[in-house]
Amino acid sequence: MSSDDFGIGLVGAGFISREAHAPSVEYIPDARIAGIQNRTRENASSLAADCNQNGNSEPSIYGDGEIKALATDPDVDAIWVTTPNFTRLNAVKAVIEAVEDGADLQGIAVEKPIGRTVKEGNRLLELVDRVDLPHAYLENWPHEPDVGDMRSLLWEQGRDAGRPYIARSQAEHGGPHSGWFWDGRKQGGGALTDMLCHALANNEILLSDPNGSPPKAVSVTANTGTLKWDRNAYAEELEAAYDINFATDPVDDYASATIQYEDANGRPVISEASGSWCYVGSGVRRTIELLGPEYSGQVLSDETSSSVFFSDDLSNDEGWAEKQNATSGRMPVSAAEVVKGGYVAENRNAIESFRDEQNARLDLDDGCRILRLCMAAYKAAETGQEVDPRATDLTEYVPFPARK
Ligand SMILES: NC(=O)c1ccc[n+]([C@@H]2O[C@H](COP(=O)([O-])OP(=O)(O)OC[C@H]3O[C@@H](n4cnc5c(N)ncnc54)[C@H](OP(=O)(O)O)[C@@H]3O)[C@@H](O)[C@H]2O)c1
């Protein structure tokens, strides 16, 4: 560790900081976690201990209300904002005020989604632009090596046949791990904002010519539903775990959206995105596809041959097949998950860009555009009508699960 190392200041010590950002920085030479600020100081300390043990860094620790102190720490070169969606704007505001008061930062990176509404996203961007600070939107999917390789191979080898015309991204898991995700007002919506903001961003990148400009979104249709978690037994589970009343205040636990784009020649290009919090199985199930006139490609999270999975609740502690002696499935374990998951590439790109005084490959303008697509999708699902994002002012729109 040297004093020339790029020092990251983490705002938030929750799942994404602990499981993705801190371990991924260990793969990046000349970078380290230099400071951690968190509402509960003890959780910042325990993450700092992990960084010390695994990454040989010694982050300074800051508690509740100390974002400005983190931003002015001389070892901190840039801030990564990773706290929940409803805290996003205030966290960024504190960082920007610190810069206005003299903090010497090279950049700010913000986790997906960049806010709960277009209004919040615009406000966040205004704040960052006010001090001309380079920025990054932390969306890992397009940074995944498998996704990047598929995109560049298909665009390069398939170009003579014609550009790709359908991108599909689908992801589901069994539901988030913290109460605030399930609260529409705090999260800004449900599965649509949480899962489809990944899928929509990923599709848009897959459909964008690496040598040209991205296609323009011209129409959005969508569906949302609450399929599982408002059922009595499951709502009670959520109440017991997180003290939220999902039966009376449900949000969508399933969403799908289709975005029609126009390419540079005015031809239609389609993004299909779907996601849910209703999947019973091991981990996250995900399928990504890109289709063109003479080619197709796919990235699957689970490429094993056919299999089934029953939860422990259903199996009643007995196997369902003869001689089966396990009642729950095995989690697939992937070596270097932070590499495969795109977090190392995402963070490396942000650090290198900030060192060059540039925005990252995905920046907060991209984050705002994806948030606008999410809002258009909620509006389309609510009204049952197609939404033209070019002609619809979504600034004041609040998704229906976030209104009460
Ligand atoms: N790119 C991805 O794959 C991915 C995956 C997961 C999450 N994310 C994004 O990352 C963000 C954080 O998600 P997470 O899973 O890390 O959440 P989490 O595990 O619930 O952690 C939340 C963190 O924020 C702090 N916090 C909670 N409420 C707060 C409040 N009112 N004021 C200030 N701090 C507060 C918590 O502090 P305490 O220690 O005091 O509880 C904790 O450190 C979300 O925006 C999510 O969309 C991205």
TrEMBL record:
The keyword Oxidoreductase applies. Coiled coil: none annotated. InterPro entries: Gfo/Idh/MocA-like_OxRdtase_N, Gfo/Idh/MocA_oxidrdct_glycsds, GFO_IDH_MocA-like_dom, NAD(P)-bd_dom_sf. One of its GO terms (molecular function) is oxidoreductase activity. It comes from the Archaea. SUPFAM superfamilies: Glyceraldehyde-3-phosphate dehydrogenase-like, C-terminal domain, NAD(P)-binding Rossmann-fold domains. Residues 161-279 form the GFO/IDH/MocA-like oxidoreductase domain. Residues 6-130 form the Gfo/Idh/MocA-like oxidoreductase N-terminal domain. Gene3D superfamilies: Dihydrodipicolinate Reductase, domain 2 (3.30.360.10), NAD(P)-binding Rossmann-like Domain (3.40.50.720). Keywords: Oxidoreductase. The keyword Oxidoreductase applies. This is Gfo/Idh/MocA family protein. It comes from Saliphagus infecundisoli.
